[in-house]
Design goal:
single chain, 490 residues, alpha/beta, 12-stranded parallel sheet, two-stranded antiparallel ribbon, 34% helix, disordered N terminus
Length: 490
């Protein structure tokens, strides 16, 4: 398009064109690079690609080999892998295999009569291995890399139990590619010089118990955030490796890997105080990874003394109340807790314990359950435990409930107790029940009356629904993204 005075856009200085293109998202930059050679030259200026954020998808419904995504990935990593400073990648080898439910909670279930065949499963895993290899080959010598954040949306490949890296050996040349991936990751850590953020979550086969030992001494000093989460049985970090990371301010681990020795080490006065700690407690792994060696109450007290401003985020996935009561130590400065299950029940006693112990720190409470039944936690109780939690936890700002019965009058009480300070009150419509005795005292539609009363209590318009941006389809994906925002707030 001609500019004022008949001067074309091509007459603009390259520096100005680069500045204009800096406001475009990555996808639009790539599209604009096909307009002409001048734009292409400007769009491949290194300053435009210091931050790269991608979600890499495999074939639809588990089929295909990522024929569309892989060439694009190879092109981008060949062009920008050597100088990118912040790299965020999500690998989804079977994007679309699971279809969203029509319900409001945004959960996913397998498409009817469309379970993945062994051949399609192998194709998906081959895509995953090839894409990981492509990325690590391109960035292994990048000494300017400051943030590496990789997540593997691979847990949907498992039908039951824990999916670990041994399954990749079933893929053609899987063992060879897996070994090469592990070697490349260790080379990347060894060559790094200024890493500040290192996160590898559910990346099958990438991180091994020996990986962190390869981290260079300069990066060991600059590293501020570390996330190592996988389904491997062996811990991914040892006390000796953690001892090198003296400037660490944020940490995310499997709860069973957060041992008493690690907790005591983090409490050392010779280290920078820890600000954020994210822990994932996976009930499916408790048989293989028992909780006996986890941090004790005395360990938590020592850690809190050394890190007075520390806050903890805990997700308990398919964990029963007995295990939950075991891990909820009184001294944990718990700010966020997400209780998620498909069949396990959270008892009213667990909720009451949370409300009593963390009334001064708790700000986010998510209670999710996918089973067909909607248990009532207020049975045989004078007060609903959710109402008591809202009353006691004065800093509560986010409350999300699905899969448990919430009586309409209790929902009104929660809205009045917390008022406008409760920024998010997300309750699924199917979780709400109405007291039949109330119909004798109120007129009109009970749903309309509930919406009106809760809206008045919160001081804003409210409707019974569930914000899918808060609770994503896959719990581990939600945990990965939530711990990112949680840790960045330190």
């Amino acid at each position: 398009m001609a500019l004022y005075g008949g001067v074309g856009a091509m007459a603009l200085p390259s520096e100005l064109i680069v500045h204009i293109f800096s406001f475009l998202p990555d996808r639009d930059k790539l599209r604009a690079s096909g307009v002409c050679s001048r734009w292409r030259e400007c769009l491949f200026y290194p300053a435009l690609w210091t931050h790269l954020k991608l979600r890499l998808c495999g074939g639809r419904n588990g089929g295909g080999s990522g024929s569309e995504e892989s060439p694009r990935l190879e092109f981008m990593m060949r062009k920008f892998g050597s100088f990118v400073r912040e790299l965020q990648l999500e690998f989804a080898p079977v994007e679309g295999y699971l279809n969203p439910l029509h319900g409001i909670d945004g959960r996913m279930e397998a498409a009817e009569n469309d379970s993945p065949s062994p051949d399609r499963w192998k194709e998906a895993m081959t895509t995953y291995l090839d894409q990981v290899l492509c990325v690590l080959c391109s960035i292994r010598n990048n000494r300017n890399l400051q943030e590496l954040n990789i997540y593997g949306d691979t847990c949907i490949l498992q039908e039951e139990g824990i999916l670990d890296s041994t399954c990749l050996n079933q893929v053609p040349q899987g063992a060879k590619k897996l070994k090469e991936i592990q070697q490349l990751f260790m080379e990347l850590l060894s060559n790094s010089r200024q890493l500040k953020w290192l996160s590898s979550c559910f990346m099958l086969g990438v991180v091994t118990p020996c990986s962190l030992a390869c981290l260079s001494n300069p990066s060991a000093v600059t590293l501020e955030h570390l996330s190592l989460l996988d389904n491997q049985l062996a811990p991914l970090i040892t006390p000796s490796e953690l001892d090198r990371l003296t400037g660490l301010r944020s940490l995310a681990l499997d709860f069973a890997d957060f041992t008493s020795n690690l907790c005591r080490l983090l409490a050392s006065p010779h280290r920078a105080p820890l600000h954020r700690l994210s822990l994932l407690l996976n009930g499916a792994a408790l048989e293989a990874k028992p909780l006996e060696g986890s941090a004790s109450e005395d360990d938590w007290k020592a850690l809190v003394r050394g890190s007075a401003n520390m806050r903890v985020y805990l997700m308990a996935l398919e964990v029963g109340s007995a295990e939950l009561l075991m891990v909820l130590k009184p001294s944990i400065p718990l700010e966020r807790i997400h209780l998620d299950s498909y069949s396990s029940l959270v008892s009213d006693a667990a909720l009451e314990l949370i409300a009593q112990q963390y009334n001064k720190t708790l700000s986010h409470f998510l209670l999710m359950r996918d089973d067909a039944g909607f248990p009532d936690l207020s049975v045989n109780r004078n007060e609903d435990p959710l109402v008591l939690l809202a009353w006691r936890c004065t800093h509560l700002t986010v409350l999300v409930i699905h899969g448990y019965t919430v009586w309409s009058h209790n929902l009104v009480a929660i809205s009045r107790l917390r008022g406008s300070s409760l920024r998010v009150l997300a309750v699924s419509e199917e979780s709400i029940d109405f007291d039949p005795d109330q119909s004798h005292y109120t007129e009109g539609d009970p749903v309309h009356n509930l919406v009106k009363e809760v809206s008045l209590g919160l001081g804003r318009v409210w409707h019974p629904s569930l914000d899918t941006s808060l609770v994503l389809s896959e719990p581990t994906q939600h945990f990965h993204r939530e711990l990112g925002t949680f840790s960045q707030g330190m």
